[in-house]
Amino acid sequence: MQALDNARDRVAGAVDDARLQARLEGLAQFGAVQPGQPRGGVARQALTEQERLARRWLAAEFAGRPGYAVGIDAAANVYVRRQGSDAGAPPVMTGSHVDTQPLGGWLDGAYGVAAGLEVFAALDAAGVHTRRAIETVMWTNEEGSRFAPGLMGSLSYVCPDRLAEFQDARDAQGVPFGQACAEARADFAAAAREAGWQWFDTPLARPLHAYIEAHIEQGPILEARGLQVGCVTAIQGVRWFRVTVPGRSAHAGTTPASARDDAQAKAIALAHALLEYGRAQDDEALRLTIGRWQCRPDSINTIADQVVFTVDTRHPDARVLDALQARLQALLPPGATMDTLQNKPTVTFDGGLTALARQACRALRLTHQDMLSGAFHDAMPLAGFCPTAMLFAPSIAGISHHPEEHTAIEDLAACTRALAWCLTDLAGQTDAPPANASFTSTR
Ligand code: GLV
Ligand code: MN
Ligand code: MN
């Protein structure tokens, strides 16, 4: 125990602020809206060229080192693995996603991946070997903004049957997810072959000892309370709907009011009624967002024949979401329809793992509190698969999904030290050298 205590502290102490910052700034160049300025916004949606290049660049930092291997699975999730001494023991996993919103910030998802890699750098610098392998994963399509729903990679990992259902989800240009996924897999494997990286096979649903994800909070709580780390105990439920309101196109100037079937007018009235319902609940915890609005034919002087808009609703209590869903259904005008794009119930994380997160914060003298996550994360599906928890770093002014998203490097590094402490604990220190038995080259 003495040795493990010592290893956890040494690895946490070897986390390097400048190295972490350099990795994050390098990553922010992929899809940078203003090259050279990490805080100018990042446009790096799932499986686009920039996102695929970013993943290869991140993998390359460790892939060529002894004791490391890389892999990509059927859902195009990319793994960087630091081998343990016991090749048969299920690994400990960390990581997050590197896809962004159409115009996102530089830390959402990126931080969790960069932090996982920083723990590798710290383990190497501290000369610590672990019994279990540790893997940093880059999940595919967490955001759900290019292909809906979000969390496709992590959902496919825990439930491989879901992957078939995602294949035909299309982006706005009509590209199917299955095609984008196959291209990403092929070019990652080709890059690995060309670079001579160690490779390991990564079937979906491989058993995991534990999953712990670091992420920025994306909300205002930690900063407002002056705290360094959030120990996340649960993620609130989220439901996404697509509402389609039909009408009939006609000339804007000649069609009298009595003859109009105006999809815009009906959709706007519906949206107002829904938002009014949300306001009337007077419930600070209820989140209701109409984020996408598409109108056809999208012309100034033609009455719209169709409007499609999305509704994102969140709350920790499923009954509140049930009531909101029922109200939306009841408000639909004749002919309008609604489809559910995703429905993720509230999940509670593993008590043992959140206790470990608190223990890490205490050992490292980091100010912290337990908290609920307002955003969903890849840890959500993982929670039903293996012991799972999350660590949050504060977000300045709570801003996220926006170019101004930011966190001080000291706070990012502090949360990474807590992550390093937990991962070292979970993987178990050992004096034995890493085993290479699980490395294969069956590409
Ligand atoms: C993830 O980006 C979310 O919308 O919670
Ligand atoms: Mn995220
Ligand atoms: Mn996000």
TrEMBL record:
Zn(2+) 1 binds at residues 97, 108, 215. SUPFAM superfamilies: Bacterial exopeptidase dimerisation domain (SSF55031), Zn-dependent exopeptidases (SSF53187). Keywords: Hydrolase, Metal-binding, Zinc. Binds 2 Zn(2+) ions per subunit. Zn(2+) 2 binds at residues 108, 143, 401. Its cofactor is Zn(2+). GO terms for molecular function: hydrolase activity, acting on carbon-nitrogen (but not peptide) bonds, in linear amidines; metal ion binding. Belongs to the peptidase M20 family. This is Peptidase M20 dimerisation domain-containing protein.
